[in-house]
Design brief:
401 residues; globular; single chain; Aminoglycoside 3'-phosphotransferase, Chain: A, domain 2; alpha+beta; five-stranded antiparallel β-sheet
Length: 401
């Protein structure tokens, strides 16, 4: 099946699910326990949803205290409990929750449904979260509907315990950057060449198991020219001239990116998906877990989230830090060739272009200022790291030049 045919098929499937959900909204939500919107999350639904974590909890009232919508609808809610609520070994149920659910915008809902982002995050909290050795929020309920379009996740409200959240507008200190790199290494080490990928984690997306392959190729190929047209003033000429090759030679790159050893990665490790709890860095928004080379997460973070001068000055040191923490965490030394890790870092800068250009070309995914900063940083990195020269080398090696 061609990428276009796959894109049309997946889009048609999601449009059909959206029409189904809209026509039978009340009935479907009652049947599968997934509210149609955040406004449908009431005391009765919350009482049922919290039973697995807090048996006997009876929510008396719920009040929305903030939120916004992007690739998901996010809301903070405040709960009170009925006097009938029972105590127990689970402890006191939460007074505040952070809710993630189906995006409000139909266009964004279609985008997230086609890429099955809700399915990925629910799967993470269902099968993976409890094995992650680094900070990530606790989920009290995670559900996804057939078709993957509607979903709901109830998370602990990290703001309640004083965690600090970051955006691409927040300059990170070098110590904070090091904390992120250390925690990425510890996370990757825990799943390094894990036998679980042949067992309970067989569903995790990989080179061989990617049901969204054609959709991803189509979206990224169509995003390249609009992203350059909107942000040409920020981009080095070598990027404007060569970026189209990333889509044209995507299969070659995917082959290279899937060379082992492999691990579980976050898949979208930019600073906006992180938080700091004291000196520890944590990861949020697990919509894109996948099996890949761990350096992809590191490269994505360094290229997308660091000011260019900070990256240039410290990227060598930070990759050395990543390697050293991997080794201390039990990864075999034979898997940690410094020269090859640096080469892969250069190669994954090409992936960061895919992510940044899709965001820049798709209104509503991120504010314009965020998209522009990511494009500028990615363009600078592609030039600095001679990533297109690496693409030339890969093409020559494969005979696909």
């Amino acid at each position: 099946m061609s990428d276009l045919s796959d894109f049309v098929l997946r889009t048609g499937e999601q449009l059909a699910w959206m029409a189904h959900d809209r026509a039978l909204a009340g009935y479907v939500a009652r049947r599968d326990g997934i509210p149609g919107s955040v406004d449908d999350i009431d005391a009765a639904w919350l009482s049922e949803a919290l039973q697995a974590s807090f048996p006997g909890a009876v929510v008396g009232s719920v009040r929305r205290v903030g939120g916004h919508s992007g690739t998901t609808t996010r809301a903070r809610i405040e709960l009170s409990y009925s006097e009938k609520s029972e105590g127990g070994d689970a402890g006191e149920p939460p007074r505040r929750l952070f809710v993630k659910t189906t995006p409000a915008s139909l266009g964004t809902r279609l985008f997230t449904g086609v890429l099955q982002l809700g399915l990925g995050e629910v799967g993470f909290y269902r099968d993976i979260r409890d094995s992650v050795p680094t900070p990530t929020p606790r989920a009290y309920c995670a559900r996804v509907a057939p078709g993957g379009g509607r979903f709901v996740i109830l998370l602990e409200d990290l703001a309640e315990r004083g965690c600090r959240f970051t955006t691409i507008d927040d300059p990170l200190s070098l110590d904070e950057v090091r904390a992120v790199v250390r925690n990425l290494a510890r996370f990757h080490a825990a799943f390094w060449e894990s036998p679980r990928f042949a067992g309970d984690l067989a569903w995790v997306k990989s080179r061989r198991n990617n049901p969204h392959r054609g959709v991803e190729r189509m979206i990224s190929a169509r995003a390249n020219d609009p992203a350059i047209a909107r942000h040409r003033d920020l981009l080095p000429e070598v990027v404007c001239k060569n970026a189209h090759r990333i889509s044209e030679q995507r299969e070659l790159l995917e082959d290279y990116w899937s060379e082992g050893p492999l691990t579980l990665i976050h898949g979208d490790s930019h600073v906006g998906n992180m938080y700091f709890d004291g000196e520890e860095a944590g990861l949020l928004d697990w919509q894109m877990p996948q099996r890949s080379q761990g350096i992809r997460d590191v490269g994505y973070f360094l290229v997308n989230s660091l000011d260019t001068e900070l990256r240039r000055a410290h990227q060598d040191e930070l990759i050395e830090l990543y390697l050293s923490v991997l080794e201390r965490s039990g990864v075999p030394r034979s898997h940690l060739d410094r020269q090859e890790m640096w080469r892969r870092y250069r190669g994954h800068a090409l992936y960061v272009w895919i992510a940044s250009s899709v965001t820049a070309a798709t209104p509503g995914l991120q504010p314009e200022a965020v998209a522009r900063r990511a494009m500028q940083r990615t363009g600078d990195a592609l030039e600095d790291l001679a990533s297109f020269e690496l693409l030339d080398e890969l093409s020559a090696r494969s005979g696909r030049r």
